[in-house]
Design goal:
Layout: H1 3-19, H2 26-40, H3 45-69, H4 85-101, H5 110-119, H6 124-151, H7 153-160, H8 162-174
Helix pairs in contact: 1-2, 1-3, 2-6, 3-5, 3-6, 4-5, 4-6, 7-8
């Protein structure tokens, strides 16, 4: 019963950790928060604000880490200077768009784009703008999708039947 009221703290923690590289399900927690609020008819502003702030702050931490550590620190990932030429060219040409769009690529850790943005020394103001707009769009989109399915849960359950619906949800969680 407390999830609709205090779940935004959980949303913040999981999404922030996901954005600094800890393998936690950031998208799933945003979808789940929206779903629970859709069923409970709760307010959306708190989890959207928490998700946006977590993405934004996690992106800043990752950018800073990439900026400070540079190329040499990632040799353990077998990222030699030759292998980093392609991402550097990508960020020189499409860096701002990449920071925004990378959040929406399923199964692509958000930390990678922010690290590469820092490593390629993207201008700070440009990064902040696209990190903030991408974070807001990302958190809002996933929470609203979950909210829509939470609102329409009874209709979906009647249409598909409870067994099929629970199998679909189990598959999504496992994925």
């Amino acid at each position: 019963p407390h999830i609709p009221h205090y779940g935004y703290a959980l949303v913040f923690i999981v999404v922030f950790l996901n954005n600094i590289g800890v393998p936690l399900p950031g998208e799933t927690i945003l979808l789940g928060a929206g779903f629970v609020l859709g069923k409970a008819a709760g307010s959306l502003w708190q989890p959207i604000a928490a998700g946006t702030a977590a993405c934004f702050l996690g992106g800043i931490c990752s950018f800073w880490l990439g900026l400070r550590l540079g190329h040499g620190s990632f040799r353990w990932l077998h990222l030699t200077p030759e292998r980093l030429k392609w991402p550097e060219r990508l960020f020189k040409r499409h860096g701002a768009k990449t920071v925004f769009i990378a959040r929406f690529i399923f199964l692509f850790p958000p930390v990678v784009a922010n690290l590469l943005a820092g490593m390629s020394k993207m201008p700070w103001r440009t990064f902040l703008f696209y990190n903030l707009t991408g974070s807001a769009a990302y958190a809002t989109t996933y929470i609203l999708i979950g909210y829509f399915f939470g609102k329409k849960w009874k209709l979906l359950e009647a249409w598909l039947g409870p067994t099929a619906l629970y199998l679909i949800l189990t598959g999504i969680v496992l994925l």
